[in-house]
Structures are given as C-alpha cells and as structure tokens.
Amino acid sequence: MTFLYETHLHTCQSSACGKSTGAEHVRAYKAAGYTGIFVTDHFFGGNTAIPRDLPWEERIRRFARGYEDAKAEGDRVGLDVFFAWEETFQGDDYLIYGLDPAWLIQHPEADHWSRREQLEKVHAGGGCVVQAHPFRLRDYIPKALLGLRYCDGIEIANAGNEALWDVCAANYAAWAGLPVTAGSDNHLSKPGQMEDGRLYGVRLEKRLTCAADYARVILSGQSPELFVPEGRLKATPDMVCPDSYWLDEKERAVRTDVDWVKMDGDISL
C-alpha cells in the first residue's frame, strides 16, 4: 500500500493566481483518491495575494488562510493537509517543506533572504528546499536558472509544464543526483482532472504525520515514487532544449551550454 500526495497547489485566498479555495481543492483531491495535499501558496517574492504593507505577523496570518481553509475541510472529510510555500527570486521558484506559519512569524527576515540564506535558514529549522519546474519559460520567467547550489531536490514533473521542460529537468536531476518530486501546480480544481492526467504527485510507503516527515524524506536523499502520466519523462525527436544557466556561488547566472535533452555539452559547474 502506498499513500498519494499532491506536492504543489495554490489557493485563491493566498495566491493572486489561485482560482479555487483551500476547501474546494480538498474536496476534489479527496474524490480523486489522494491521501493528502501540500498547500504551497506563492510567498512574498512571487504572485502573492497578500498586501505587502501590512505588519509581518498579519501578513503571515493572512498568507496561511488558504492552508487553514484546506486543513479545516481536510479534517472534516478525511484528507491530510500540510503547510508549505513557494518562494520566487528571478523567475526561479523554490518549494519549502517542513515548516509552519509560526516559524515564518519568527523569521521576518525571510522577506529579504538570498537563495543561500533561504537554504541555510530552512535547514536550521528542519525543512527542505525543492526547486520547482527549473526549465519552465514564460513571459515572467525569461531564463531557466538552475539553483543546484540552493536546493535539496528538484521537481521534475509539473502538470503545468510542457513535456520538454520536464524531460530536461529529469535529465538534469539525474546528472545532479538529487531527489526528485512531481506536482500538479494546481490553481483550479474541477471534475475530470484525474481522468485527464492533469493531477500529479508522489507516492510514499509510509503515511505522513506532519510536513516535517516529507522534508526528512527529501533530506535523506530519497526520491519518492512519482505519480505522472506514462511516458511523460521520455524525450521525443522534436524536442529542442532551451538555454539554461547555472546560479553560481554568488547567485549570478552563468550559461551552461548543455543540451539537457540529449545530455550533450560541458556539464560542469
């Protein structure tokens, strides 16, 4: 028996791009057969719905509303709900697992952390950092920035991605030897998503009792079983790798000159 979890999800209460409430997500995932979900709303470096001019503690309390709505409904219907968040820098996004709103309230400096500071502080608190969709390119993500120095794992399958980006991420993670994850990046829960293959996630052999359990899985170097459509991570002849950039020790972008589809080029930091 395994336990199925959504690792990447946004609510309309806390993410400006969210379309479903926490409770609406919970009912959909319960119907789809999931054991639990992580609510990973956009933090203050990204597409947050929280006004930035509020006092820090009030910002965090409002930020947690999507999670709290989901948790209350999850307790009612029998779906496990865990708190997490997604922070953004220069288009590169990082999912933080294993910590809670009380921890964030005690760390107002989080609003100004560098990637390295984020990793160090999250580790000190017992959490982990997973880089989300590292090869995604959009009008608001001009470059594929690879934060290998600043994460513990890599999300290699994202239901909001083009298949090409996931193939590149999978090959990159295999080369780097980091744990890998999958998530839906779900903003709107509606009927039929499971049947259409638009819900991703991870399967674990042990049921999570808290968010820190999941962080410990990643920090141990283990990769959970991925719940993704068959063939999702298989390259096709028409795939052309986008340009990608290392984030160096000073967090500067340095072009890689690597074809992550064919695994050609000088693959060195």
Query: Per CATH, what is the topology?
Result: TIM Barrel
Oligomer: single chain
Across the major sheet, the strand order is 8-7-5-4-3-2-1-9-10
Question: How many angstroms does the end-to-end distance come to?
Answer: 40 Å
Structural class: alpha/beta
Approximate helicity band: 25-40%
Question: What does this protein look like?
Answer:
The structure is a single chain. The chain has one domain: TIM Barrel (Alpha-Beta Barrel). With 269 residues, it is α/β, with parallel strands linked by helices. Helix 6 links the parallel strand 7 and strand 8. It has a 9-stranded mixed β-sheet with strand order 8-7-5-4-3-2-1-9-10. Strands 6-11-12 form a 3-stranded mixed β-sheet, with no helix packed on it. Helix 1 runs parallel beside helix 3. Helices cover 26% and strands 23% of the residues.
Secondary-structure blueprint:
Blueprint: E1 3-6, H1 22-32, E2 36-42, H2 56-63, H3 65-77, E3 80-88, E4 93-97, H4 101-105, H5 115-125, E5 128-132, E6 144-146, E7 153-158, H6 163-176, E8 180-183, E9 201-204, H7 211-219, E10 225-227, E11 244-247, E12 253-255, E13 258-259, E14 264-265
Parallel strand pairs: 1-2, 2-3, 5-7, 6-11, 7-8
Antiparallel strand pairs: 1-9, 3-4, 4-5, 9-10, 11-12, 13-14
Structural features:
269 residues; TIM Barrel; nine-stranded mixed beta sheet; 26% helix; 23% strand; globular
